[in-house]
Amino acid sequence: MYRDQKIVVVMPAYNAARTLEKTHAEVMAQQVVDHVIVVDDGSNDKTVAIARDLPQTTVHVHPANRGYGANQKTCYRLALEAGADIVIMVHPDYQYTPKLIPAMAAMIGSGLYHCVLGSRILGGYALQGGMPMWKYVANRLLTAVENLLTRAKLSEYHTGYRAFSRELLQRLPLEANSDDFVFDNQMLAQILWLGYTVAEVSCPTRYFAEASSINFQRSVVYGLGCIRTGLEYRLSCWGMMTSARFPRRATLAGPESRKAGEKSCS
Fold first, then answer.
1. What count of other Cβ atoms lies within 10 Å of the Cβ of residue 170?
2. Would residue 251 count as lying in a domain?
3. Is 215 exposed, middle or buried (0-12, 13-18, 19+ CB in 10 A)?
4. Is 240 exposed, middle or buried (0-12, 13-18, 19+ CB in 10 A)?
5. What integer is the mean pLDDT of 204-225?
6. Which of 36, 72, 187, 224 sits in a 20 to 30 Å window from 178, CA-based?
7. pTM over 0.85
8. Is 1 within a domain?
């Protein structure tokens, strides 16, 4: 709880049996989290059994693997249904430290921001934490292209450590997004499209055998999806296409929202 605002941590899980309990323990050790929601996406290990023994935790199971994006859609829907005012996504693979939860929650709960990212790039922690060089280079190149297309100045678009306000999650057309990994990128682009400022905090990360990671082939598919999202954003700004992900300015609620949306295309 932060200033009487309910904090819910969501964990999109897939074969996370070896790290889930440790991650959860560190989440609860921050003493500000009211509830944890674990959504298992068809794991074939003991993730679900372990999750069901964790305190202050609700477990939801997808009978079959539906994809990382579909998992997040379920996470955010359940968090809102649970009455969350602040929602923080923490991967259960222990790659991102939960020790930043109080700081990220405070930035949301104080009303300063509606979205906060834990950035691996700020502070130079990515390579120190073991990020492979090819992934680091790809991250920097993709981020540069995306910043060019969205007119934003984020240090990275690809972190899985994110905090959101209830207001923001209720406004995002998440169902229009992919069920795969590019969901992360599309969601951030939607936030920028609506004119919200995205805050970032420096986040040390760990790369080890149990940490989740996509292979080179899927990384290429993801990268192409990110570029496509950026192009879709820019073409929608210019009025050259219509998109369910980036609705026309006239459909945004209220003149202030439309003004903020127009600013995001300038």
1. 10
2. yes
3. exposed
4. exposed
5. 75
6. 36
7. yes
8. no
In a domain, 97, yes or no: yes
Please report whether residue 38 resides in a domain.
yes
pLDDT in tens, 236-260: 999 999 899 999 854 454 444 545 5
SS (H, E, C) the chain: CECCECEEEEEEECCCCCCHHHHHHHHHCCCCCCEEEEEEECCCCCHHHHHCCCCCEEEEEECCCCCHHHHHHHHHHHHHHCCCCEEEECCCCCCECHHHHHHHHHHHHCCCCCEEEEECCHHHHHHHCCCCHHHHHHHHHHHHHHHHHHCCCCCCCCCCCEEEEHHHHHHCCHHHCCCCCCHHHHHHHHHHHCCCCEEEEECCECCCCCCCCCCHHHHHHHHHHHHHHHHHHHHHHCCCCCCCCCCCHHHCCCHHHHHHHHHCCC
Range of the domain at 115: 7-263
Residue 222 has pLDDT above 60, yes or no: yes
Q: What is the CATH number of the domain that holds 85?
A: 3.90.550.10
Rounded Cα distance between 241 and 38, Å, is: 37
| Domain count for the chain | 1
